[in-house]
Design goal:
This protein has eleven helices and ten strands.
């Protein structure tokens, strides 16, 4: 096996399969560990080629990468350019490339590129997952969520939107305040309202359970081209609507011991 050539071939294959879904908006939540192990390649080779090929194949689409940060919550400040995403090396590399617009939501920012960017810039959120948020926009605009090398329970951050919509009792609204910067330059005072979980429940949270309804309803597709490259894909609306059914049936469904 020629590791590098096989990776290039398999990567293009899986991305072209995803592209043919014909949606206009694609969210990529990513991990590279499986690819590193299976193809025995260096991290930069995998990361750079995933980014380059997504940008090339989806050139006429709107693409997004979750770029969430805890800086506002932990440090009371957030820098649009310098606050590193905790969502993986691919969004960190995309951020450093200066090719993407980063939305101003300090807690749940996204890196965005594509023809619908101006629509996203106009959003005014009420809460991080609620009305006017980018999650709400993805829900209303038939976005496709792509969990690349991730199972549904780890790769569908939009699922939390259903917890807010159904008002699960282990979360509450909390306001985070601080200062916003752009590459070290002060911009303004900011605050965000988030449907946060109570700390007492943190060790009980188990997000493996809600995926059962997605499998039952067959509302996602698993694309596997090798053990080192696979994707779970589903419309954002399906993820949220099915998750709402899950929580309406049991508001404590994502706790190990209610």
């Amino acid at each position: 096996m020629n590791n590098k050539l096989d990776f290039f071939k398999d990567l293009k294959k899986i991305l072209n399969i995803i592209y043919r879904k014909k949606n206009d908006i694609f969210v990529f939540q990513t991990d590279i560990v499986n690819s590193l192990r299976y193809y025995n390649l260096a991290g930069p080779t995998v990361v750079n080629n995933i980014l380059i090929n997504i940008e090339k194949i989806f050139f006429d689409k709107t693409i997004l990468f979750p770029a969430f940060s805890n800086d506002l919550a932990l440090k009371k400040k957030y820098d649009v350019k310098l606050s590193k995403p905790y969502t993986g090396i691919i969004p960190n590399t995309a951020l450093a490339s200066n090719k993407y617009f980063r939305t101003e939501s300090p807690l749940h920012s996204f890196l965005v590129k594509g023809k619908m960017l101006n629509d996203i810039k106009k959003l005014k959120q009420e809460t991080t997952w609620g009305d006017g948020s980018i999650f709400d926009w993805l829900y209303r605009n038939n976005a496709l969520w792509v969990s690349l090398n991730l199972d549904l329970n780890r790769g569908c951050a939009v699922h939390h939107m259903a917890e807010e919509k159904t008002k699960v009792p282990y979360r509450f609204y909390k306001i985070f305040r601080g200062k916003m910067y752009d590459n070290g330059k002060y911009k303004k005072e900011v605050f965000e309202k988030k449907f946060s979980y109570y700390k007492m429940y943190s060790k009980l949270l188990n997000y493996n359970k809600w995926t059962s309804i997605m499998r039952e309803k067959k509302d996602f597709n698993k694309i596997m081209v090798s053990k080192g490259l696979f994707a779970n894909i589903s419309p954002v609306s399906k993820i949220v609507d099915r998750s709402m059914i899950f929580y309406k049936n049991n508001q404590y469904g994502s706790l190990n011991n209610k």
